[in-house]
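Dear support,

I submitted the protein below through the web form. The confirmation email said the job was done, but the results page showed an empty box. After a refresh the structure appeared. I'm attaching both so you can tell me whether what I see now is the final result or a partial one.
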Amino acid sequence: MRPGFVWLLAALLAASCAPKAPPPDRLTLAATDFDHLAGWRADTAGAALAALRKSCDAFAKQAAETPIGPGGLAGTAGEWRAPCGAAAAVDAGDDAAARSFFESEFRPFKLANNEEATGLFTGYYEAELRGSRRREGAFATPLLKRPPDLVMVELGLFRPAWRGERIAGRVEAGQLKPYASRAEIERGALAQRNLELFWVDDPVDAFFVQIQGSGRIRLPDGATARIGYDGQNGQAYVPIGRLLAERGEVPRDAVSMQTIRGWLAAHPDKAAALMNENPSYVFFREMSGDGPLGAQGVVLTAGRSLAVDRAFLPLGVPLWLDLEDPAEGNGRLRRLVVAQDTGGAIRGPVRGDLFWGFGPQAAERAGMMKDRGTYYLLLPRDVAARRTATS
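What the results page shows now:
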């Protein structure tokens, strides 16, 4: 047997034994009914109805022909007029009436990524920090407002396949170039530009409020200011908890906001370098109103607003969660939520981030949440009928 043939045969055998690359992410839907939603009748559906009404207000501002979600997955804004009108007539304090409303106006579909219906669900919250409007004493870590030269591009405006995807940078000599990374910003890339919105007393708190996307600043005079997301530098989000697990610093199954904070506190000489390994950097604006705004432009509802990947899912639509959650009495978190936000780490068809609100309990609940589970998309019945007829 010739050496060349032996080499070729070995190469072919190696290729046949090599693991196949996973298929690209693809949202798939399977029609079902409310009887198949475990725990459906035990949920306080009125709370989800109140959250949905906020999304209905956003739909009402859109032209009737505006597609809702990628490829018009949830129909058009006009097709939400009827269910939203019905929602306005239901008493949100009556859970039975709210449940009947959803059963009458919507049809559920089980979501999957190709054939995989199970995904990861985490939590986030509105953080509280101690800060000042000027640099003084311990208040030495800045939270920055959005730079005027930061350009954020909605790629879906250029190609439909990129709907929900964004890129950011700055224009140099007529070309869009990458914006400064976290490490570069920390080293002073944006200094002397008068971008400091607030100064806070803890760089770790400043890091985590960027992950949460919103927060409250407790000022020296006792007043409180609220900040909200106003742009990101376009750099990829790298979870530092994953880095700690890969390096054996924290057991993989023990990674949480609490354990990450604990490691940073125990290694102050390494904390800044680790945080800078996440090149993503978030900019803020001062907010007014009753609570943090999600990506849909509506005030988030604690326990009922979910961040999703809008490259796959529409904002404003109800979703039924069915998750393994040890913090719940029966070990399951089952509730109706509304997709009203997005997040840098929320990627894929089966991935969600549940907003828990404000305060120590919300922070504790969000920080520990690392659930596996499934969810179901609720579509208006006319949209659902059309989808079922064409599938």
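Response: this is the final, complete result; the empty box was a page-load delay. The chain is about 30% helix and 30% strand.
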